[in-house]
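Quick note —
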Amino acid sequence: MLECSLYYVKVYINQMKENYTIKEMPANERPYEKCEKNGAGSLSDIELLAVLLRTGTKGMTAIELSRNILYPIHSQDGLLNLHHWSYEQLRKVKGIGRVKALQIVCLAELARRLAKATAHTLLDFSTPESIARYYMEDMRHQKQEVLKLLLLNTKTKLVGETDISKGTVNSALISPRELFVEALQKNAVSIILLHNHPSGDAMPSKEDVLITKRVRDAGNLIGIDLLDHIIIGDNCYVSLSEKGFI
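Predicted structure written out below.
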């Protein structure tokens, strides 16, 4: 009780300080001590971020600052919000200066690369689940639709990939000729289409099905197979091949 009372006295005193650190917290509530005693897995998402930020700001602990980043007003996305913040947006948050903003955007990028590196060990271009897992972190946080073309050789190995379009994936804007010119230049024998739905819902639209059939039919004419069209949602996917559209 005495320790907690002293803590709140320190809160009041530190409101006059420029930086308010985790050190002012009771020992049993400090993320560093909890991590050292019980491991990093014992920390909440907020505490993990607070450890990396190290300090708060005037009248605000690193814990409170981290909570504002992970759970801004009208959002309960938690860790996913790290991918939504831009450097410029972070600089507008009270207590987030240049260094902290850079730390947060670099942390989000590191998390994305770690997820992709982990998925790479299981990557198999003959398996929709494997493909979706590998590209998930690249595409699930995109704020607009991106259509990727994956180019494969006779052994179903990737020989190239390219972004065909950004924005609404519309059959009127996607030219099968453009896709297959790219495939022929790389000597690909098969292709896979991959695009995201920013809404998070991976269910294919009528437009998605129409594009798939147009590309499939064009590929059949020139001898380059469309193996799949995979739609990425928020931690989910739909394979149009598995759905029977190819």
